[in-house]
Amino acid sequence: MATIGASVRNRKTILAVILIGLAMTLLQVSSVNNLLPIMSKSLEASTSSSQWVLSGYALATGILLVSSGRLGDLFGQGRLFVIGLTIFGLGSLGCGLAWNAGFLNLMRIVQGLGAGVYSPQIFGIIQRYFKGRDRARAFGYVGLVVAVSVATGPVMSGALVAWLGEGTGWRWSFLVNVPVAAAGVVASFAFLPMRRERRDGTLDIDPLGMSILVLAVVGLMLPFLTAFRWKWFLLPLAAGLGWAWVRWERHYGAAGRSPMVDLRLFRLRSFSYGICVTLFMFLGSSSVFALVALFLQKGLETSPLQVGLICLPSGIGSGIGALWAGRHTYEDGARIQARSLAACVIALLLSTLTAWGTTRGIPGALMAVPLAFVGLSFGLMGSANTTETLRDVPPEQGATAGGAYQTAQRVTTAIGNAVVTAVFFSIARGHSTQSLTTVFHAYAAANAVIIAVIAASFAVAFRYLANRNAQANREASAKPKKAAPREFPPRVRH
Fold first, then answer.
1. What pTM did the predictor assign?
2. Where are the alpha helices (DSSP H) in 226-367?
3. Which member of 112, 165, 243, 350 lies 3.0 to 4.6 Å from 61 by CB, making a disulfide possible if both were Cys?
């Protein structure tokens, strides 16, 4: 699929359209996390059934990201974006009208499937229509939308509950997506040049490769999202399926076919290092604000709306960081990643210190200060990492690479949330009293896990930076010659 040229004005319009979908799904995730206790009470749902409101969505999204990215690269990212947005809107309508926990869980799965279809197309469309510094700026705006959506989701859901009451407010947190999704679909038909998208001549979708990968992702994510007997036996099964998938993809490509994922992507240093940094980063970062909410609500009896307001400066900081990184990451993306991760570790240590201060009488609202710096580092890191990871990926594989990138995020998010919350509750429940001091100890231990994995992410980013600097020094000392364009590595037959 060739890159289609577009004017600056058209590219800005295209970016605005796809960011509608991104904002919607992120608002949904952050708001639902805040509303789970209220929804459970309203529908008289058990703890296990309520958990599927989160787990079902995460699992449904995770299993489709790579497959739908591949389909977008073949049939057109705009088409898949519209299909996914429509499915998400219908799922949102069903969630808002749900009469029991079972139907709500089903509609959350529908929502997740829709998000899994259209999310990788966002990356593919940016890869296709934006180049160089413009692409870095586009990913900067992606980071801004991520920051604003994640920060405002809890505030929006808390405000709707406060305004409409617990029985109705949580429903409108879903129903507001319906007109937004409809507007996104109309805008997509109006502004995305879907008729000009060229299809791959072979239309080789590699159905067996897709099936194996879906089963592998299910086996990897399910033990961390649910609680059932023998669940941990799924992990070696997932590992075996992952090995089988890699072998099949190599065989498929060596036979002259078009595999689901061209494994040559991982021979691109920027892509492989970026994925590795992402794996460690999301093991920790995805749990930061959930952990803060647990501490504030259980230790200081803070309301959901107050939690959202305390976390709001983090979103503002993240947005500022993302925009700044979008302007500078093209030239210095590796250095920005390393420095932002180091800053994140320091900010998280300060958050632990501030939490300790609440046990000595300082207001819990002061948690907003270190969280603002955590958000700033997340914004810098997110924008820089996305740009650096995808910078050498061919446009015709943009959605597939974006799907792989997001899958890494989803899988490690599931694992990180499970581990961090398990550490928190194991310590909190291990004490006879649930005092503020006990809750702080649980928070400090869980936050230490987060700090450790983000420090590991920093180590990987620093190694990548060192390699980049060494390569630049070698090139500077060599005899000057005309720089050859970056090319996708040739296929190696196995």
1. 0.80
2. 234-254, 269-285, 288-294, 304-358
3. 112
